[in-house]
């Protein structure tokens, strides 16, 4: 018997001495719209940000507006013609691109909307700059909730995702890190990221997702990678109604074993909110604390970590959970009474920071989970000795505006220090 049910205990955050958090947010991201009837709402990122600010978490971390990703940077993974198409297509000229729309899978699920290219560049820029700051040791955790768009392929949009910011962020991390671990707790399989690194042992992908008559239809237990990447793709296929204690009893043993044997020097955690109870498109039964337990567990390893958003289609629940998880990453358990914020009326009638589980039936039987874990551990046996990596010269970094010469920056700014110096100021120890 491999599977052992664990009780779900209240989350306790262990404050670590080293915990510098860089948070990336662009105020424009909430203004984009996929369309009024489309379930994906970028507005939820703005709602999350409002909660984070009103809880006072801005005092704990450094807040940045990343430089949008350039075409050249996007093409480190995506094909030139696909990125060129995204930069040129608009709702007004869509008829001119009918052939390309079919080729690049742009249409129903992935509509063309005003500012599509700008939206992609904001998402990509945040994840790439977060990775660049981790590389240079400027922070221990980087957060980009506008990222996490894990379905996008090299030359194809998919599942509401156009640009795979996660792959671009991992490529950035691979400049400095010999092994990177990608973890996906979205209810959908992280197929775009898995596919990108399916043939390499330098990136291990681990996705916990609903499998069986569910988008995108990939991610079964037997999909483990090919060639040098054999056994470096880990899939945990789950069934409807999984709850907090069951999820924890699967997540922690799998990730614990991976951390022990693969020994990654950087982690990317995709925090899709559609695995929460009551999601419009999801079918899991996780509470806010059950979801956040994954973030808290990963934080306990003390490995440099990039945290990105993802799915999540009940906006008030996604924003509550991401705000709570931002608190955990800053060693704070947020108060359950929501502070007044720009979107306070969304959180009625209780105005509480909580997403509660429903009485949904959990189809994941102990026998089924035992079979899944046995298969995963058998595959992981082959990764017991972390792969060796040939050491090469590190290519030059992504340009980071945070490293501007302070003297010249001060000369241009008359409001008491440079913008970059002010960005770096977080809560002082003697502040009330």
TrEMBL record:
It is found in: Nucleus. It is an enzyme of class 3 (hydrolase). Residues 391-432 are annotated as: Disordered. The active site is at residue 151. Substrate binds at residues 109, 159, 313. InterPro entries: HDAC_I/II, HDACs, His_deacetylse_dom, His_deacetylse_dom_sf, Ureohydrolase_dom_sf. Signal peptide: none annotated. The keyword Metal-binding applies. One of its GO terms (cellular component) is nuclear periphery. A divalent metal cation binds at residues 186, 188, 274. It comes from the Eukaryota. It catalyses: N(6)-acetyl-L-lysyl-[histone] + H2O = L-lysyl-[histone] + acetate. Coiled coil: none annotated. The keyword Cell cycle does not apply. GO terms for biological process: cellular response to heat; cellular response to nitrogen starvation; G1/S transition of mitotic cell cycle; G2/M transition of mitotic cell cycle; heterochromatin formation; meiotic cell cycle; negative regulation of rDNA heterochromatin formation; negative regulation of reciprocal meiotic recombination. Belongs to the histone deacetylase family. HD Type 1 subfamily. This is Histone deacetylase. It comes from Lachancea lanzarotensis. The lineage of its organism: Eukaryota, Fungi, Dikarya, Ascomycota, Saccharomycotina.
